[in-house]
Write a structure and sequence with these properties.
Number of domains: 2
CATH architecture of the largest domain: Beta Barrel
Strand order of the largest sheet: 3-2-1-5-6
Largest sheet: 5 strands, antiparallel
Distance between the termini: 63 Å
Strand content: 35-45%
CATH topology of the largest domain: OB fold (Dihydrolipoamide Acetyltransferase, E2P)
Number of strands: 11
Oligomer: single chain
Order of helices and strands: HEEEEEEEEEHEEH
Radius of gyration: 26 Å
CATH class of the largest domain: Mainly Beta
Number of helices: 3
Structural class: alpha+beta
Shape: elongated
């Protein structure tokens, strides 16, 4: 027997491990924190986890784009415990920990950043409202609202941040 084959066998016997090679597939659908993946023509595996546990809590969740390639591993060597470990294209990235949530969504091309108290979208929306109603003290008394060109610039600011923030 070849030395390399003997060494591999001895290591396998020593740690009592079966090789668990990654499996490549194509995402066909997303179901919450699991997905259905086609691994061979006309063979689909469902309930493939998108994170270590499919428990409904999105602490860190990367949702692959439908039709993209994914790499999967099984925690016990069976097809019943498959988890996506890598995807070629992500449609959404969600991080949610200690009240901080960051979501990047490539489908609607928007980002959401918030915590338990406030969101970045709300802060900028409040700023836009404040700027449109801004009045300052003058020797003649309080000023009026901003001039039309300033209002247009503020409205452009509001339109632009709403294009990227949820």
């Amino acid at each position: 027997m070849d030395k390399h084959v003997q060494l591999k066998q001895q290591l396998k016997d020593l740690i009592d491990a079966n090789p668990n090679f990654p499996i490549v597939g194509v995402v066909r659908s997303i179901e919450g924190d699991t997905c259905t993946v086609e691994v061979l023509e006309e063979l689909e595996l469902s309930d493939i986890r998108l994170k270590a546990t499919a428990d409904g809590n999105d602490h860190l969740l990367i949702i692959p784009k439908i039709g993209s390639n994914v790499l999967m591993l099984s925690s016990d060597g069976t097809v019943d415990n498959m988890t996506v470990i890598k995807c070629d294209q992500a449609s959404k990235f969600i991080f949610n920990e200690n009240g901080l949530q960051v979501e990047i969504d490539s489908e609607d091309k928007k980002v959401c950043i918030k915590n338990n108290q406030v969101s970045l979208h709300d802060i900028l929306n409040d700023l836009s409202t404040l700027l449109q109603q801004l009045k300052v003290y003058t020797p003649m008394g309080p000023s009026g609202t901003p001039l039309p060109d300033s209002i247009l610039a503020i409205q452009k600011f509001e339109t632009d941040f709403k294009k990227i923030l949820k």
